[in-house]
TrEMBL record, chains A, B:
Organism listed in the record: Wenjunlia tyrosinilytica
Record-annotated membrane-spanning stretches: none
Official protein name in the record: Methyltransferase
Keywords assigned by UniProt, alphabetized: Methyltransferase, Transferase
Keyword set includes Manganese: no
Any Pfam family: N6_N4_Mtase
Gene Ontology molecular function: DNA binding; N-methyltransferase activity; site-specific DNA-methyltransferase (adenine-specific) activity
Lineage: Bacteria, Bacillati, Actinomycetota, Actinomycetes, Kitasatosporales
Annotated stretches, region: Disordered: 25-45
SUPFAM superfamilies found in the cross-reference section: S-adenosyl-L-methionine-dependent methyltransferases
Family according to the record: Belongs to the N(4)/N(6)-methyltransferase family.
Enzyme class: transferase
Superkingdom, natural source: Bacteria
GO cellular component, one term: cytoplasm
DNA sequence: TACTGGTATGAATCGGATA
DNA sequence: GTATCCGATTCATACCAGT
């Protein structure tokens, strides 16, 4: 398996991809939630919005959390449109969002041409909420280019229960590898998974482990470095596993 | 605890309710999903859509399943607007939907004036899907009139896992009582829960069991009869429980 | 290895003070 | 009134250390 990482703006890089070169898109864009007023949403950094005051960890901030709702929708639509162009027929696109952005996300998915086929909840640990229901779920909107490939003997779950990695976490929104490994199976074996918002590269790690190629784009040099290191580690480990028979 | 059932059109009945007479709205409107084309959605009856072909059971059809998406939104908005008017400050409104209607549902909730505060997934049993992700979740969009009452020491879960009742089921979309019992707790003790689409009356049964009053509306005479019977059973049972100390 | 008890923390939320 | 900042809050769960 191989991986390619681009440091740069997602949309700019996507435009350079050839048609029908991607077999699945799995990504977690910076969605612009959090905060009560529009200015709070657009002016505060991701860390300021999402990290509990007093939290001891010191994870780096990430860019892209400054769009208002309308611009988020059109930006995401354009991005998914380019992904659609670069995808093969039967390709699946999966986009993470929180509850606030879920409707906007499925709108953008459809506006970009994908056939919206479902919304999958997954449950990270979360805080309780006094006087009401705790918000314990996040969502993955998924869609297909054309129709699902019914010839594959593939049955994937419709919801995931897992929590964020706590140890060795390098990104505020890092996803558990076990969940990502399930998701990348939607990509045919040996195909290429695209993640325009690579972050710390969990999608890539999962893809490589599951025998898929990975194509990642990330704006922040800090995170490109981290993703590169993690992915290189995977390949080295693979080679090692191949070389020595034990375990 | 007491209950009131109206046989009639939801909107018509809602308009007759006095202002600020309702403490919570919990309902499962007939949403128009299923079917890939708008004509498929609007022409097939609820039974045809939701009941497995060849299934032997004989649940009655229910009305209201023939709206297209736009008209569904405006109809639901009007309905939720009337509910909003009839609700007290801090009242919570919860609306069930499937994944397809979830964005429309949160739109309507907000258009009606409620402050959308979250989307809760709940998982009924479902069939796997070849070549992709199983669609195992349905959603409850919830919102508040004004703001949540933070003085209550109430902490409710953010997702529910339960399967639809199989035995003793009297309505196609009947919800498990255990889930409904959790939901009705959002209504203050002794308050009144409104369900404009009572169906077989599960919301009412849960409300009565949890010590809330219930106000239900149902168009179908068939289901009003069933709901009435179930609710009367609850009260009788309550009386019995009160009379005899054992269990 | 399996259990147990202590501790840290979360893609938040809320009220209130300040500018 | 709006924007911004600050700090208190809440408990299920993962993690750790110790038996």
């Amino acid at each position: 398996m191989s991986y390619t990482l681009h440091r740069g703006d997602a949309l700019t890089v996507l435009k350079t991809l050839p048609d029908e070169s991607i077999d699945a898109v799995i990504t977690d864009p910076p969605y612009n939630s959090g905060g009560r007023t529009s200015s709070e949403r657009t002016s505060r950094s991701a860390r300021a919005k999402y990290v509990t005051a007093g939290s001891a960890h010191d994870l780096a901030d990430f860019p892209g959390e400054n769009r208002d709702q309308r611009s988020y929708r059109s930006w995401l639509t354009e991005l998914l449109t380019e992904s659609y162009r670069a995808a093969v027929n039967h390709a699946v696109c999966m986009v993470f969002s929180d509850w606030r952005q879920a409707p906007t996300t499925s709108d953008a998915l459809q506006m970009a041409g994908w056939t919206w086929s479902g919304t999958i909840p997954w449950k990270p640990a979360s805080r309780p909420r006094k006087g009401g229901f705790k918000q314990s779920a996040e969502f993955i909107a998924w869609g297909v280019k054309g129709s699902l490939d019914n010839s594959r003997k593939l049955y994937l779950p419709g919801h995931f229960i897992a929590s964020q990695p706590r140890k060795d976490r390098v990104h505020i929104t890092q996803k558990p590898i076990e969940v990502m490994r399930q998701l990348v199976r939607i990509c045919p074996d040996g195909g290429t998974v695209l993640d325009p918002f690579t972050g710390s590269g969990s999608t890539g790690v999962a893809a490589v482990r599951e025998g898929r190629h990975f194509l990642g784009v990330e704006l922040s040099a800090h995170y490109v470095g981290i993703a590169e290191r993690r992915l290189r580690g995977e390949l080295t480990q693979d080679d090692f596993t191949l070389a020595g028979p034990e375990k």
